Amino acid sequence: NTLGSLTVSNDATVQGNLTVNGTTTTIDTAITEVDSLEVEGSVGIGTTNTTTAYGTNAILHIDATNITDQGPVHIHGNKNTTQGSIISIRAAGVAHTDANIFAGIKFGSAPGADWIAGKATRSGSGFFEVRRNNGNTYLQIDQNGHIYPGSDNAQDLGSSSKRFANLYTGD
Fold it and tell me: How far apart are the C-alpha atoms of 109 and 106, rounded to whole Å?
């Protein structure tokens, strides 16, 4: 049978597989459960706009600004794995010996007040870094667990009103 178009005003039940040949641009409904979903292109959850604040197109854009009864985004992992629950963020297509690679998570509020935490690789050496949106690094932890300031003689450890009680060293 061939049908030019179909409009369903009430409920519809499909038993078996549903195949859509063509482009489905918008699914405007509440989906209660999905076993598997493969999407080519960008996905917006809570939005139809996948353009980021930086003017680039995001593959996944979650806009939870209208959610009031619970936290906006929750990612749950399997704690029974040997590594625990992990969210993996990786710069694709690079080797560990590549210079100046960074993958991180941005924590933002007001423009210019963003902080980014992530892994930086410089000529094969990996660091965990805390930096600002402008690229300035404020804290580094190297692959051996050594902690460094972002630059020489630039950061304090504590202040006159926020002091550390004790400092224990191996010296």
Answer: 10
Cβ-contact 18, 34 below 8 angstroms = no
Cα gap 73→63, rounded to integer Å? 9
Q: Give residue-wise pLDDT tens across range 151-163.
A: 999 999 999 999 9
Whole-angstrom distance, CA of residue 100 vs CA of residue 123: 7
Cα dihedral value 63, 68, 69, 74, nearest 10: 30
How confident is the model over 48-88, as pLDDT tens digits?
Answer: 777 776 667 777 777 777 766 665 666 666 666 676 666 67
Structure tokens at 51: 């353009």
Closest alpha carbon to 58 in 70, 46, 66, 74 = 46
The answer to whether 122 touches 99, Cβ cutoff 8 Å, is yes
Q: 3-state DSSP call for residue 152?
A: coil
3-class DSSP state of 137:
strand
